[in-house]
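W.,

You were right to be curious about this one. When I first looked at the sequence I had no strong expectations either way, so I just let the prediction run and decided to look at it fresh. Below is the sequence, 110 residues in total, followed by the output.
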Amino acid sequence: LRIHSRFPVTLPQRIDENLCRMLASFNPIYLVTHFNHPKEITPVSIKAVQLLQQAGLMVLNQSVLLIGVNDDVEILKLLFEKLALVLLDKNQLMENGFTDLINDIDNFEN
């Protein structure tokens, strides 16, 4: 089962032991979060991700390149470094067809 959710980003306090226990009963579950900027990674969101991982969920991240939000190499670098610290297993960068408008993005291209 694969679930995409911004709950760990926008409503991390909703992710508690009861929810994790319920989700764990359906394992294996891949939960894909959508952290798009390093400022979205907070102590509360980190705790939410860790609770999900402790329940046995495989937590992944899919970031979308957003003009004016994370279309800068340094912001993306910081985002991916922070995500690695949170122990997210995999990160995916969705290009949305406008990478040609972003300077120095070739480091992140597939």
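Here's what jumped out at me. The helical segments are 7-10, 17-24, 43-54, 73-85. And, maybe more interesting for your project: Residues 16 and 80 are 25 Å apart (CA to CA).

Coffee later to discuss?

I.
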